[in-house]
Design a protein that fits this description.
Elements lengths: L1 H16 L8 H9 L34 E4 L6 E4 L1
Length: 83
Amino acid sequence: MKREADAAYSTVEELRTGPITMPKDHEWNAFIKNDEHFVDPDIPVRDAQNIHYPGRDNELAQEVRAGLLERKSKYLKSYTAGW
């Protein structure tokens, strides 16, 4: 029983120093980097403020109203915020 307990403790220690310490997305990032159909995760995310296109600053291209849409519930007859 002592040998089994020591084997269990050594297994736990090997897991703690091995796979448990790896980042949770390690395998996913390796998969994405090796597949040509995915975008490389190391590329920084673009900011909408840095994208320029013709007519971007035109006043006719500005938003008329911004915010959440309200949807009327079918059963409660009340409005709830949504996308």
